[in-house]
Amino acid sequence: MSAPVAAALGEFAAKVYAEGVPPERERQVASHVRDMVGIAIGASVEWHDDPVTKLVRGWRGAADVGALGRAGRYTAAGAAFIGGTLAHAIDFDDTHLPSVLHPSASVVPAALATAELTGATGAQVVRAVAVGDEICCRLGMAGYDEELGNSIFFENGLHATAICGAVGAAAASALLLGLDADGVAHAISVTTSMGSGILEANRTGGSVKRIHCGWAAHAGVAAAELVTAGLTGAPTAIEGRFGFLRAFCGEAGDVAAVTDGLGERWELDRLHVKPYPANHFCHTSIDAALEARRLGVDPDEIAEVELGLPAPVLRTVAEPPEAKAAPPTGYTAKFSAPFTFSAALLGGGGLGLGLADFTDERAFDPAVLAVAAKVRCVPDERCSEIFPYHFPAIARIRTRSGELEPIEVLVNRGSPERPLSSAEMSTKFADCASSALAPEVLSELDGLLVDLAAQPGVGRIVELSAAGDSA
What we know:
Elements: H1 5-19, H2 23-46, H3 51-56, E1 65-67, E2 70-74, H4 76-89, E3 95-96, H5 104-118, H6 122-142, E4 144-145, E5 150-151, H7 152-155, H8 160-176, H9 181-191, H10 200-204, H11 212-228, H12 244-249, H13 256-259, E6 271-272, H14 283-294, E7 302-309, H15 314-317, H16 321-325, H17 330-333, H18 337-346, H19 360-363, H20 366-372, E8 375-379, H21 381-386, E9 393-399, E10 402-403, E11 407-409, H22 422-433, H23 439-450, H24 459-465
Parallel strand pairs: 7-8
Antiparallel strand pairs: 1-2, 3-6, 4-5, 7-9, 9-10, 9-11
Helix pairs in contact: 1-6, 1-9, 2-4, 2-5, 2-6, 2-22, 4-5, 4-11, 5-6, 5-8, 5-11, 6-8, 8-9, 8-11, 9-11, 14-18, 18-20, 23-24
């Protein structure tokens, strides 16, 4: 009889943490940490009065560590709650495909908070994040249905990012707390009772989704700390009759996807980095608009845009159509294919659209709304066949003079097949962090993050990330 899944994950985690990862993967993981830190800083400005920080600043306890993007000292779980919230709050965080979840936004803040608490090195953080992200992604793949072409979590209205992210965060935190393979397995098992999140806010509004990764990071740290205090988890918490996969995915959960090739084949290699701070389903629509802009398409001359998208994404970025044509806030605009296409066609910041393009003021820009009202989103069979390994878009633009050649974007920018260059990653980091940090602070922080594995600790990184925040 094979070992329980949690035990196998614990053994994998302990081995990677003890032996390390190859230099190329070390650089890969450090890049994802840098990405999350920058995003959290940008979110600290965009969402300057977030309710999570307000809440956590009132919590009592041993205030031992800092939080990404926020001044003050907090418990490790509280700091992870704040950091995870900010890392996901502006929809700029990395995405694993085809599971369609965002692992690093939960795992990185939990790892940094625990590492500062324990005095762990940058190299140890890299190893713990590699483990946490990999476990998160594998759980997401266990809920991916190839025949359905979509995540079972998403089909049921569940946010796989938050649910699987809590488990990944627990594994990373447990390692940094010094737990052995058995302790990591218990932390994984305990946190299967803690992950949660539903996606209705994507459709009809509300800001609750912005805290999903924060709560997952908080749950991961809390689970690991509970294990150090003596709490235990069910050995078969992942695969059991009343375990994680059966509870969230029913009979369709694929247990083998969690452990097959573990340590040999890495799901981390399928991580996509977002070039734009918007829902990932909108990204190829943005690219199509940027291409139309490059070709000289005049927004005033547009009569109609038919935007062909994968059928499963329409409910997130195209429905209800009246709300997507005129989003009520800058945040909800991130989930609108018509709005993001229009904003990119008119011209934006960053790598094509940046943080400044999703303010509440921009959401009511008459020029953007005029074009967005002309965008009609339809299911496209070719795009649906490619989904969810990419989120393709085909834009058919009709002007007053006639119909233009279709613009096809079938591979996501920022994917392993179309990666962002080091210069583009630096542009993204600066777009996020420069809104809060003075140039000299930004430069020092970026240098530490680029060379994360060589750092003796992470306290200075967290401290600099909050340099622009006033408590």
